[in-house]
Amino acid sequence: MSHLKGKVAIVTGSSSGIGQGIAKRLASEGANVVINYSKHGDGADETLKMVDSAGSQGLIVQADVSNVSEAQSLIEQAWQKFGSADILVNNAGVETESSFLDTKEEDFDRIMNVNLKGPFFATQAMVRKLTAAKKPGRIVNISSVHEDMAFPGFATYCASKGGLRMLMRDLAVELGPQGITVNNIAPGAISTPMNKSLLEDKPKLDALLEKIPLRRLGTVEDVAALVAYLASDEAAYVTGATYYIDGGLSRDYHEQ
């Protein structure tokens, strides 16, 4: 498959989990991939091997997207290396569990800065480049079912993803005339390193699976396939949408 032959994709937070799976899939579709990481260089090296083995070119860029100048530098380096970029996948994200009353300011700031401020300014830097080059483009945000579903104990995370939903809708309207599409993917329970403790807690995992109509966790490949579609020309008329990829969880969710 080479739906993305000649395209360049930037994937934030692509040293592990969903981001790594996205980088691998986009490379397999023919795209060259800019691999971004903040802390885990070894994981980024692993992602680069996957991109190479798919026959595409990769570039590793260390940048903390919550820092505006680093987010801008990430986009700049992508354009310097490849001469252009077409696709930005805002995947980097963090979460911390705490009751609303116990939430600390530094945790609030970190989650908002990575999950909302990061996509805002990385997209801004990307769109400035696209505008100057008079090019269309694709922005895909990896959001969460919690852009819409309440999740007690994760108020800050939910607020950040709710903000990302509204940002996507606004930018779809604002950037549409330039041929830039903006969409969200909202994963539910996906099997990733981030969910390691859940995967090792069988009673908790079984209770969750009971709430998922398809009775399984999602895979990074499930999410990556949807990114590949939204990044392709087949999705040229899709913008302003959130795609749930949750096995039906959000349609059948109830607290204990």
Largest sheet: 7 strands, parallel
Q: What's the pLDDT, averaged over the residues?
A: 96
Structural class from helices and strands? alpha/beta
Shape: globular
Distance between the termini: 44 Å
CATH topology: Rossmann fold
Q: Please compute the radius of gyration using only Cα atoms.
A: 17 Å
- Tell me the number of helical segments per DSSP (H or I, 4 or more residues long): 8
Can you tag this structure with a few keywords?
256 residues; alpha/beta; Rossmann fold; seven-stranded parallel β-sheet; globular
Structural commentary:
By secondary structure, the chain is an alpha/beta fold. 45% of the residues lie in helices and 14% in strands.
Short structural summary:
By secondary structure, this protein is an alpha/beta fold.
Topology:
Blueprint lengths: L7 E4 L5 H12 L3 E6 L3 H13 L4 E5 L5 H15 L4 E4 L14 H28 L4 E6 L12 H21 L4 E8 L8 H4 L2 H9 L9 H12 L10 E4 L11
Parallel strand pairs: 1-2, 1-4, 2-3, 4-5, 5-6, 6-7
Helix pairs in contact: 1-2, 1-8, 3-4, 4-5
